[in-house]
Specification:
The strands form 3 sheets. A 7-stranded mixed sheet has the order 1-9-8-5-4-2-3, sandwiched between helices. Strands 7-6-11 form a 3-stranded antiparallel sheet, with no helix packed on it. Strands 10-12-13 form a 3-stranded antiparallel sheet, with no helix packed on it. Helix content is about 35%, strand content about 10%. The protein has 14 helices and 13 strands. The chain has 2 domains: about 240 residues, Aspartate Aminotransferase, domain 2, CATH 3.40.640; about 130 residues, Aspartate Aminotransferase, domain 1, CATH 3.90.1150. Bound molecules: pyridoxal-5'-phosphate. Pyridoxal-5'-phosphate binds next to helix 4 and helix 5.
Amino acid sequence: MITKHRETTRPLAPHRSREHFLPFARPLIEEDEITAVVETIRSGWLTMGPKTHEFERAFADRIGSTHAIAVNSATAALHLALEAIGLQPGDEVITTPYTFAATAAVVRYFDARPVLVDVRPDDLNIDPERIEDAITGRTRAIMPVHIAGQPCAMDEIVAVAARHGLRVIEDAAHALPTRYCGRTIGTIGDMTAFSFYATKNLTTGEGGMVTTENAQLAERIRLMRLHGISKDAWKRYTAEGSWFYEIEAPGYKYNMTDVAATIGLCQLAKLDAMTARRAAIAARYTAAFTACDALETPWVNPDGEHAWHLYLLRLHLDALPLDRAEVITELTARNIGTSVHFIPLHLHPYYRDREGYEPSAFPVAYAEYRRVISLPIYAAMTDQDADDVIDAVLDVVQLGRR
Ligand SMILES: Cc1ncc(COP(=O)(O)O)c(C=O)c1O
């Protein structure tokens, strides 16, 4: 199935295009980040220390969470969250096929089983109506993924989790800052994992954060992110620290560095401005594409505030002479970078072969994946960049119709 979509096609009509390639994603790194990082490097304290702690406090304040624990990726954040609930081999965790590799891989780290539940066609988030049927005696947690930065139906998810005594661990890699019914994502589930990967709404190069209201879970995550050695071990090399430490568990090396946290602090200060810019680009796209019968613009949930990490444009393939791969090839020929989010987990050899999945096992995820394209959307884009994307998309969908 995936092999088929790997086929490359030659562009049909590479004609008017922008002069330089517009990458699919690019971080907004300005002089403030550069100056601050230089200062941190000059300070001599490179790894986890005062800047990481300052970033954790500032992040918790921004989200409105009690605890924020900085780590080196969202993958680490999700792994530590599952470790903190004591996930065991053979346990089950409910999530969706419409996500990135990391969401399910962390479950497999424990020799536990990711149990996939199909998504809703409107927002591509887990369908809360289907969760109950997937719960068994081995289910320990639900991991909703806020795809593209749009909130999942958290009231329904939290209610079903409460009825069955399950934990809710949110994959909010895309969802900063996302709001749901007046609450900020990061304050609803038992734990929430954020990503600060280079393409994310806030970047530290690589990085992640866990937020939680639960002091016990926070303490376990703090312990396990740095070798499982006793609290504040990072202070060992300061005047206030002590040489003494104890290993309490076989922990991981998942801590954030102060260099990364310094970038994060600068990014956090402009998060609202960066989000507004993403939202403006999304509005520009939607206004331009709404009238085109070959295109379906993203549905926006009125109960939430979208972080616009991704702009997922869906094609009405029956109204187009091109397939999705050809549309991507044509856009590339017009110097527009795109991507596809996501190839559903059940199509990948590892999960397909393990569970014997057919593509139709999750019909909504499969059908929507086949017609979705992610367009460039990031704070470093200009209006002209967005207009170039619009021109290229409208030009491509007219191909063969002329
Ligand atoms: C939905 C989702 N979850 C988790 C991750 C993992 O994030 P990280 O690269 O910070 O480990 C990503 C990364 O793209 C993602 O898209």
